[in-house]
C-alpha cells in the first residue's frame, strides 16, 4: 500500500507519481496529444499553480528558480503563497513567515498585489464561463466546472476541454494551472492536486475505484490527522479498506455521519453537484496586530475600520446582513466568537459597528488582543424588506453611499470617520 505521508506531500508539493498512477497524468497541453479515456468524466477541477507567487514572478522573472514567498511585512504575517522551489523546503501557505524563514532562510519575500490577483482571477473565470455556465468558484484560484452539457456544443471531450483551458491560461496570462477530470467533484479535486504543477489527470468512470482504493484515507476531503489516525488504529489505512468495511462498523466506530460519509466516498459516490453562483453565506474582515493590543480605544478604532470595510462590501454586492459577529484572539491564543442577530437586515456600517462594539464591551474586558475581526451573516439581497424606523438610519445610509462614491473616485482615503484620521490609518488607506 502507498504511504499516506508520501501522498499527502505529493498532493501539495509535486512529488513524482508512482508508476501505477502515471497513466492518468497528461503533461502536454497540445490538442493533438493522446488523451486517456475520459468516458463519464464530465467534472473538471481547475487550480492555478502557486497563484499569488506566479503573478508576482511575472514582474520578477529573475527569481523564478529561487524560493519565493508572498507575505505581508508584519512580524506576524503568514505565507499567502509559496512557489515550488520554496515548497521543496516544506514551506506552504498559511504558515507563519517566521516558520517559513526557519525552513528556508534564503527565500525571497514579495509583498502581495491583491488587485492583480483579482484581475487575473476574473479573466480566468470568464474563460471558464465561455466553456460552460456551470462554474463553481471555490476561491480566486480554483473552480469546479461541469462540462457535460458543453461536449456536443464544443464537439470536444472533457480531457480536450481541460487541455484547452490549460493552454489558454498559459498563453494569455503566462501562468500555469492544473486540471483534474473525473466523474465526481471530490475525485476531480484529488486529481488536480496530484497533477501539480502544470499537469492534468483524467480518471474515467470505469477506473474510478481502481484509482481511489490504493490511496490512504487521509487523502479524502474532510479527513484530518485525528480521523486518519483513528482509522489506522482500527485497521482502515487505505480507501479500499474503508470500502471493504461494513457500513454498520463504520457507523459504530466513526459515528453515524462520518461513517456514512466515508463509506460513500470510498465507493466513489458524491451527490454534490457543480453549483454556479453559490451565494455568500457570510463576509467580513479581520486584522492581526503586530504587537498585542491592550488599548481599548485603539481596539474600537480598528473595529470601526473593519465595520466600515464590511458595510462597503455589503453595499457593493447589494446585500444586507441580519447577524453581526466578532472574533477576538487574545495574547495567549485563546479565541472567542460572539454573535447577535439584528432586528432587521442592514448594510449600514455604523449599525454593524454599534452591535460589534457592544459584543466587544461585553466579552473582551481584560487582556491583550492579538487579532480582532468582524463578520456578518444571514445575507440577503438589498431588495429584501426592511422594517420601517423613525430613527436616522436612512440618512446614515445615504451618507455612507455618498462616501462609497467618493472613495471609488478619489481613493480609499478620501472619506472616513473622523476617529480613523490618525497617522496609522492614513497610511493604511
CATH-derived architecture of the largest domain: 2-Layer Sandwich
Number of strands: 14
Largest sheet: 6 strands, mixed
Indicate the structural class.
Answer: alpha+beta
Contiguous uncertain segments of 5+ residues = 1-15, 423-429
Strand numbers in spatial order across the main sheet: 1-9-8-2-7-6
Helix content: 40-55%
CATH-defined superfamily of the largest domain: Reverse transcriptase/Diguanylate cyclase domain
- Average pLDDT reading: 84
Separation of the first and last Cα atoms: 54 Å
- The CATH class label of the largest domain is Alpha Beta
Number of helical segments with 4 or more residues: 18
Compute the number of structural domains.
3
Rg calc:
24 Å
Beta-strand fraction estimate: 15-25%
CATH topology of the largest domain: Alpha-Beta Plaits
Give the SSE map.
Blueprint: H1 4-13, H2 19-22, E1 25-26, E2 43-48, H3 51-59, E3 68-70, E4 81-82, H4 84-87, H5 97-103, E5 108-110, H6 114-131, E6 135-139, E7 142-146, H7 151-154, H8 158-173, E8 177-182, H9 185-195, E9 200-202, H10 208-212, H11 225-233, H12 239-244, H13 247-254, H14 256-266, E10 282-293, H15 296-316, E11 319-330, E12 335-346, H16 349-363, E13 369-377, E14 380-381, H17 393-410, H18 423-428
Parallel strand pairs: 3-5, 8-9
Antiparallel strand pairs: 1-9, 2-7, 2-8, 3-4, 6-7, 10-13, 11-12, 11-13, 11-14
